[in-house]
Design goal:
Distance between the termini: 42 Å
Number of strands: 8
Structural class: alpha+beta
Oligomer: single chain
Number of helices: 4
Strand content: 25-35%
Helix content: 25-40%
Order of helices and strands: HHEEEEHEEEEH
Largest sheet: 8 strands, mixed
Shape: globular
Length: 189
């Protein structure tokens, strides 16, 4: 029997409509991974596992909250590994957003009635440290809205935490974060 988080990951990825053929291929790769690996959502699954992340957006001010990731050295969306208490991938993304942003109340997954991913991204990372082999994160990325009065608080999981305008993303970010921001901005209209 597969665990509830694994079942939710399969349901979510089957229900999600990829925006193009390339991302649909990635979606199918994620589903193949989950079919082959009952432990596919857990950090212990090697050489790849599902992760969940969230782009936190302050719509009123037209900005996104990014963390300077200590292992990667880039400004990224908030997110990480699934945990045993996570009821869904969306819940994992929201938990990570709350933990890493320090914004305790008011973060809302989008769409609120049935949160669905905005984007998928596959990337190699060393989960356990520099002396460990790379592992592949099969990241499922969500959109989270922050209240207008949200005050962020840096956590031990990042070197820095800052708001950046949609059109003023930092140099030390990557194409994936830029694409995620563009998609979020388009969804928010």
């Amino acid at each position: 029997m597969r665990d509830p988080l694994h079942a939710d990951a399969v349901r979510t990825l089957k229900a999600w409509s990829a925006p193009d053929d390339e991302e649909d291929l990635l979606r199918r790769d994620y589903l193949d991974h989950l079919e082959a690996r009952p432990d596919g959502v857990w950090r212990s699954c090697r050489p790849a596992h599902i992760t969940a992340s969230a782009l936190v957006v302050d719509v009123e001010r037209g900005r996104v909250l990014l963390t300077l990731h200590p292992k990667v050295g880039l400004w990224l969306q908030l997110g990480g590994h699934c945990e045993p208490g996570d009821a869904s991938l969306a819940a994992a993304a929201l938990r990570e957003a709350v933990e890493e942003s320090g914004i305790g109340d008011g973060l809302l997954l989008q769409p609120a009635d049935d949160p669905m991913p905005v984007k998928l991204d596959r990337h190699a990372v060393r989960c356990a440290g520099r002396d460990q082999p790379e592992n592949t994160h099969l990241d499922v990325q969500y959109l989270v809205l922050a209240p207008a009065d949200a005050v962020e608080q840096i956590s031990e999981e990042s070197l820095d935490l800052r708001w950046f305008g949609f059109d003023a993303l930092p140099t030390l970010t990557d194409g994936s974060v830029r694409d995620l921001t563009a998609r979020a901005r388009k969804l928010l209209g």
